[in-house]
Amino acid sequence: MKEINNKIDKKLYYILVLVVIAIMIMGLFINNPRFGEFDIGYISHSILVFLLAICLLLYPRNVSDGLRITIITIASVYFYLLFFLYPGTLTTFIFLCFIPALSILFFDSKVFYFSLLLNCLFILFLFSYIMFIDQGQHYPYIEQDIIGNLINFIAIQIIIYFIFYLTYGRIKQQHLYYEQIQQAERLKITGQLAAAVAHEIRNPLTVVKGFLQLYEQDTSFNEERKKHFTLMIDELKTAEQVIYQFLSIAKPDKDKLNETVDVKDVLKSVTDLLYSYGLLHDNRIELKVTGDCQIVANNIELKQLFINIIKNAVEASKMGDLVLVTAKREKHFVVIEVIDHGRGMSENEVKSLGTPFYSLKSKGTGLGMMVCFNIVEKYKGTIDFQTSKGHGTTVTIRFPSIS
Question: Looking at the chain, which terminus has fewer C-beta neighbours within 10 angstroms, N or C?
């Protein structure tokens, strides 16, 4: 219910909603003791049916937390109103116990906890009313064993919580699995694209670059013309670099030998290499490594990975900010973190990382991050981004350590 995307889902949703609305409308007219009186209770009942129906019908067009909370609030008030208006209907108390179960359909933790808290507050008010005001006049079946009924209510809320906890956990795992499939599909598509066009583009580029280098050294051309040749050669080198990144994704070099790599040494080498680059942006790169951090990988590919991640952190940082690089051993993993205090990223931007030609840089191709994902996956690692707009980014990379 959280995301109603295709036509089949929408059709099924509207069918179920229309059935629910029809049942609520039937409750207004069929065997309703207040029907015909049109007192404040019946009018309130009618208004809540109308509001809930409108919210449910509008939901597919406006999927938002605000509308979800509105639906849960109106539904809660609706069921509690039924309980007060029709005390002779014993089943209404059962509906009160299961109100938080409705929020499970949204698969949203914030909405569920809001519903659970709201229901607990309402039930406290209800039991206080029955004990001190009603005193069993309209609700003898609750007042006679009020402690037992309260315990039953609490037990049902706990059961609903565990159902939500298990269901939400599985949904999150499926979502993660779906994202991994999407990432694998991106790599596959990019690989096929690279295999199809990279060599065809590379050969003519090499020929053009060779002639331009020849003209660049030709004394018959003046210095101004030679500057044009130099500029064109530089642009061709950029194009060659993009093609090289395509090929590294499409055809990973399986001949590269894996070895025991000390992450501390690799990070020291990379941070020393990028030290001057950081100074250009007035940023300082600080390295902290604790414990024995050894993994099995290819030294060159590991350097390529860390150069991309740390360079991105420097470029995302503000002038004068610190970029902190840490590494430590956690059980059977080596955990590397690259922390910056830059502009950060939105949730949608994080989801798009690794997509071909998606980049937050004005001249970026997005292939650098794709190579990073490829390298991490190759060595059975994971990469995770904790970030928010304006609050920086923490990139966490985990690799299996040498036991």
Answer: C
